[in-house]
From TrEMBL:
It comes from Mucilaginibacter lappiensis. It comes from the Bacteria. It holds the Pfam family adh_short_C2. This is NAD(P)-dependent dehydrogenase (Short-subunit alcohol dehydrogenase family). The keyword Oxidoreductase applies. Gene3D superfamilies: NAD(P)-binding Rossmann-like Domain.
Length: 267
């Protein structure tokens, strides 16, 4: 089990307050890492980190701001002395404030340019900047693991039929923004793995499937029917894969895309 130990390692998780982000942090802490939970809400992320334990920390970070990331980098290095693991988890997944407008606004013909650009800024530029600022530390120290969180929709097109209600009406469309940005993340992983391979920095993608989280029953049923395991993911279903990628258990693995989707993309 020493292969999976992260004792003495410092791990940063962006988007730490999200459903999966919290589970990422908990898993890294259980494996022995010093966890830096990073998110945009300072009070909430500090409170969350405190629950993990005294050796862990919460930082307000804007992944789209290089200045914000540079400040965080110096704070982390001052406290822990190294940066060993980066989980690029922060991302935007479309939510519409007015449910009555969701169908109209999510349709490709009407999808707002501003929403598309915001997704590019967070989901792609954010991964680029975090990797540049924190990954350079890893390259300089000669070791590290970067885990970019993508999605099944980074590999295959969305099945719009799963968003139809029992009456056959389309409640919502999966927009172009999420698949486009997650596809970019997967290929950015390959670039960075080839660029920093000789520096001892491993870079891999974790592509999760959908997580059950109080969605409409019809959606859960539609989604589950497309997986070989017949269900959506639980929020903790990605913890093992994350620790594998972060630890020496995957020491000879870089530039890869680890797909954990219940079999969604297998057929």
């Amino acid at each position: 089990m020493e292969l999976f130990s992260l004792q003495g390692k410092t791990a940063i998780v962006t988007g730490a307050l999200g459903l999966i982000g919290q589970k990422h942090c908990e898993a890294l802490a259980m494996a022995g890492a010093n966890v830096v939970a990073a998110d945009i809400d300072e009070k909430k992320v500090e409170a969350f980190a405190a629950k993990l334990g005294a050796q862990h920390g919460g930082l307000k970070i804007d992944v789209t701001s290089k200045h914000s990331l540079e400040i965080a980098r110096e704070q982390i290095l001052t406290r822990y002395g190294s940066i060993d693991i980066l989980v690029n988890n922060a991302a935007i997944n479309d939510m519409f404030e007015n449910p009555a407008m969701a169908k109209e606004l999510s349709a490709f013909e009407n999808y707002p340019l501003a929403a598309f650009q915001q997704s590019l800024n967070v989901n792609v530029t954010g991964v680029f900047l975090c990797s540049q600022v924190f990954g350079t530390v890893m390259a300089d120290q000669g070791s590290g693991s970067i885990i970019n969180v993508a999605s099944t929709y980074g590999m295959v097109g969305p099945d719009q039929s799963i968003y139809k209600n029992p009456q056959g009406e389309q409640d919502f469309y999966k927009s172009a923004a999420y698949p486009v940005t997650k596809g970019a993340v997967i290929n950015f992983t390959r670039f960075l793995a080839s660029y920093w391979g000789n520096k001892g920095v491993r870079v891999n993608t974790l592509s999760p499937g959908g997580v059950e989280n109080n969605q409409n029953d019809f959606f859960v049923q539609n989604y589950s029917a497309k997986t070989l395991l017949g269900r959506m993911a639980k929020s903790n279903d990605y913890q093992g894969a994350l620790i594998f990628l972060a630890s020496e258990a995957s020491a000879y693995m870089t530039g890869a895309n680890l797909v954990v989707d219940g079999g969604w993309t297998a057929i």
